[in-house]
Specification:
Elements (H helix, E strand, L loop, with lengths): L5 H13 L4 H10 L7 E7 L11 E3 L3 E4 L6 E5 L1 H9 L6 E7 L1 H11 L10 H8 L4 E3 L1 H13 L2 H18 L3 H7 L8 H21 L2 H25 L5 H16 L4 H13 L16 H22 L9 E8 L2 H9 L2 E7 L6 E4 L12 H11 L2 H16 L1 H16 L5
Helix pairs in contact: 1-2, 4-7, 6-9, 7-9, 10-11, 10-12, 10-13, 10-17, 11-12, 11-15, 11-16
Length: 424
């Protein structure tokens, strides 16, 4: 088979599986195009499927929420092994999951976990939930946001971050019996054991921040999402009464021309923002003469990055005995939840897709927006997804990455002028 034709056929086969009307149709498409889908895996949102444990949406007492990229409570898995098992009987699918604690959660929990305050009764459920040994709770969203501070090695900042890690290790080793009896959140470990675990964790973070590309990757990705949000804000604030179709065309042109990458989830978010303005909670503080405007947008960019990381984490090799890894957030941030609700997944292709995770969003993600109009669909298809347009972005992508800092600086000046605030 011509190696140049294979990627094109594989992309079409992936679309047919992910956009199928039912799990049965998706399995039939997978079987039909199996030669092009070697090494590919799929997770589909369905009304009747597998309940992936604790990694799917739950509401906990006290306003805490567990959210994944799927709005549905059940999912369906398709891969070569699963299909083979289904042909001879019932498939047994192993999966692992993890719950990331966002920046707000880590800071919110610290007073209780450091012993400065007793745990309120209404937080029993969330503390017991996070302390379960069968749930992998981790602070990676918080850590990603602080790689730059760790690398800078400011003593005050390092002490603050270390105290957060001690709180996290306390949570992972929580003495549930003591919590129930005294309302005190304490580790079941001795203080010396707790400090040793925290120090080991902290040392590994310092090492990673200085010797690996992890921190640089987080910084670059954050800058990308910061640039996208700056452009959205420039378009909306400079001319809020402009029609939505014109706004979204400007955003798409920016993605194609200056970023040399098309961002589907962020395009859907942009369209909802252009339609609803500050009525969208996530963008509630993005307004003229907001003196902390750029700090607000930087924080929003971390949220977009963390959502995107949930996709990337699905590509991780799961532990032995598992075929899939399903990540989620624990959060109290209504704006973040609203954002995830705007773009629920219909399906996602993983494994050997040729270009990382490939998400497909539910039709209602763009319902009622200009993205649904035939005119915009034609613009997107013909102007930005023709062979020539894709080739152009591929050629310019490396240059766009090199120019990202300059692009951000230009956008900051434009937004400062439109919003009537100082340039950062």
């Amino acid at each position: 088979m011509d190696s140049n034709i294979l990627p094109e056929f594989r992309e079409k086969a992936i679309r047919l599986v992910c956009l199928a009307d039912s799990a049965e149709d998706a399995v039939r498409a997978f079987k039909l195009f199996r030669p092009f889908l070697a090494g590919c895996k799929f997770i589909l949102a369905v009304s009747k499927g597998t309940v992936p444990g604790f990694a799917v949406n739950q509401a906990l007492a006290g306003g805490f929420m567990v959210r994944s990229l799927f709005a549905d409570s059940e999912v369906f898995f398709i891969d070569e092994h699963t299909v083979e098992e289904m042909q001879v009987g019932r498939a047994r699918i192993g999966f692992d999951h993890s719950i990331g604690l966002d920046n707000q959660i880590v800071s919110y929990m610290e007073p209780y976990l450091s012993g400065r305050a007793r745990v309120p009764d209404q937080y029993d459920q969330v503390f017991s939930y996070m302390a379960r040994r069968d749930i992998d709770v981790h602070p990676m969203p918080y850590i990603r946001e602080n790689y730059g501070r760790i690398r800078a090695a400011d003593p005050t900042e390092l002490a603050r971050i270390f105290s957060k890690l001690v709180a996290f290790e306390t949570l992972k080793t929580l003495d549930i019996e003591r919590l129930e009896r005294t309302r005190e959140a304490r580790s079941a470990l001795s203080n010396s054991e707790l400090m040793a675990r925290s120090q080991e964790h902290f040392s590994s973070l310092i090492y990673d921040s200085r010797t690996t590309s992890t921190g640089e990757y987080a910084r670059f990705q954050h800058q990308c999402f910061y640039a996208l949000l700056l452009k959205m804000a420039c378009i909306q604030i400079s001319n809020p009464r402009r029609n939505s179709a014109g706004k979204i065309e400007s955003f798409l042109d920016f993605c194609h021309t200056e970023m040399a990458t098309m961002w589907m989830r962020e395009t859907i978010i942009a369209q909802h923002y252009f339609d609803r303005g500050q009525g969208l909670t996530f963008f509630g503080k993005v307004q003229k003469r907001q003196q902390k405007l750029f700090d607000v947008i930087r924080g929003m960019a971390w949220d977009l990055f963390h959502i995107r990381q949930l996709e990337a984490e699905m590509m991780m090799k799961p532990p032995a005995g598992a075929r899939y890894f399903i990540p989620a957030f624990l959060t109290r941030d209504d704006g973040l939840v609203e954002l995830m609700d705007l773009c629920p997944l219909k399906a996602i292709a993983l494994g050997k897709t040729g270009r990382g995770p490939v998400p497909f969003f539910r039709p209602e993600a763009s319902a009622g927006t200009a993205l649904e109009s035939p005119e915009i669909e034609d613009v997107i298809s013909n102007r930005y997804y023709s062979d020539e347009a894709i080739s152009s972005r591929n050629i310019r992508n490396a240059e766009a990455r090199r120019n990202l800092e300059a692009t951000v600086a230009k956008l900051e000046r434009q937004l400062a002028n439109a919003a009537e605030v100082p340039v950062p």
